[in-house]
Amino acid sequence: MTIVRKGLEEIEPMSQERAEAIRQLPDEEIDLSDIFELDETFFKQAKQVRRIEEFSVAPMTKYFST
């Protein structure tokens, strides 16, 4: 398998049609096989991170074309 990396400026906006198709996709049709399960060890070692108010993330709608 080849890994392709792109910066945000290289990714085209998602169309409204594609966004709607993803929203309509049933959970059982989503392939999660490449995501590892989080076990008890992970949660024992997890640390709480507090949100910094000054830091903000652009809303995802910015990446959808209208």
Describe the structure concisely:
The chain is mainly alpha-helical. The chain is built from two helices and no strands. The protein has helices at residues 16-24, 40-45.
What this model shows, in words?
It is built from two helices and no strands. With 66 residues, the chain is mostly helical. The model has no long low-confidence stretch (mean pLDDT 83).
Write the layout of secondary structure elements.
Elements: H1 16-24, H2 40-45
Strand content: under 5%
Tell me the series of helices and strands, N- to C-terminal.
HH
Proportion of residues in helical segments: 10-25%
Over the alpha carbons, how many angstroms does the gyration radius reach?
Answer: 17 Å
Count of individual helical segments: 2
Q: Which structural class should the secondary elements be placed in?
A: mainly alpha
Mean pLDDT: 83
Which regions have little confidence, pLDDT < 50, spanning 5+ residues? none
Largest sheet: none
Strand segment tally? 0
Query: What's the overall geometry?
Result: extended
- Tell me the span between the first and last alpha carbons: 33 Å
List keywords for this structure.
66 residues; mainly alpha; 2 helices; 23% helix
